[in-house]
Amino acid sequence: MPQIYRFECNHCGLRLATGWGGFMYVLDAIGQRVVCPHPLEPFIMADVLGDAKPRERKKRIGFMSHCACRSCAAKLLFDVQRDELICHNCESTNIAEVRQMVGETCPKCGEGKIKCIDTGMIS
Ligand SMILES: [Zn+2]
Ligand SMILES: [Zn+2]
Question: Which of 19, 48, 53, 73 is the Cys-Cys partner for 108 at CB 3.0 to 4.6 Å?
């Protein structure tokens, strides 16, 4: 069971994400991403994939990561394996996964640092 973290600035309180970095998704028959919230992943996948072949299943399962734009501090979601990492807000390509930004200077206030705070909760 993954632990829940909060990723936030210790100065301005900007919260980039809560969770453990992202979530699973599965592509439905028309290629739309269906979010699989924990702990329901196996049920939703079985439901969406139906009787798809094992090889096809693998292609249709992905992981969306909580990302943030280092230029404008927008909160973004990307499958970093598959998506082009461009900010929807300012079109910057200076995008990082939130977990990689821990310890970096806050993109919003430029003064604080991004911290990973253990909420003490377990999902
Ligand atoms: Zn800040
Ligand atoms: Zn941006």
Answer: 73
Residues near ligand 1 ion, CB 5 Å cutoff: 9, 11-12, 14, 106, 108-109, 112
Determine contact, residues 69/95, Cβ cutoff 8 Å.
Answer: yes
* 16 C-beta neighbours (distance < 10 Å), count: 26
Q: Say what the pLDDT of residue 7 is.
A: 96
Q: How many other CB atoms are found less than 10 A from the CB of residue 40?
A: 12
> At residue 112, what are phi and psi to the nearest 5 degrees?
-80, 180
Considering only CA atoms, which of 112, 89, 120, 96 is closest in space to residue 8? 112
Q: Where are the domains of the chain?
A: 3-122
Which-ligand-closest: CA of 15? Answer: 1
pTM for the full predicted model: 0.88
Kindly report, residue by residue over 78-102, the tens digit of the pLDDT.
999 999 999 999 999 999 999 999 9
What residues form DSSP beta bridges with 18?
Answer: 6
The CA distance from 14 to 48, in Å, is 35
CA distance 14 to 114: 9
